[in-house]
Design brief:
single chain, 111 residues, globular, four-stranded mixed β-sheet, 36% helix, Glutaredoxin, alpha+beta
């Protein structure tokens, strides 16, 4: 099973999709996460960790802790795939998420 872990900066809620000015990347990431949870059928997992809501996860993961020590808060978001660091400082694109999970995720963004 493929596993994405996304370690995100502190946000007011678990998805960051709230408030008067919502970030397009957060909307896309939330749509992809929901799509994977419904459609992956046990073949993929997508976990998001928010610094404000789960700071212990950032400390417990040695890769994340090391990147934060090295780059500071600018390292966030940090993306791990199957425990391996694949991206820091930016959210993955739809194509990157698709590649990481070996899934066509374009349908996740179709309304």
């Amino acid at each position: 099973m493929k596993k994405i872990e996304l370690f995100e900066p502190a946000m007011c809620c678990s998805t960051g999709v709230c408030g008067p000015s919502v970030d397009k990347e957060l909307i896309q990431t939330t749509a992809i996460q929901r799509y994977v949870s419904v459609n992956a059928q046990g073949q993929a997992m997508f976990i998001r960790r928010n610094l404000a809501q789960n700071p212990d996860a950032f400390v417990r993961n040695p890769i994340v802790a090391q990147e934060l020590k090295r780059q500071g808060i600018n390292a966030l978001p940090i993306t791990l795939v199957d425990g391996q660091l694949v991206k820091t400082g930016e959210y993955p694109t739809i194509n990157e998420f698709s590649s990481y999970l070996d899934m066509d995720l374009v349908a996740a963004l179709v309304h």
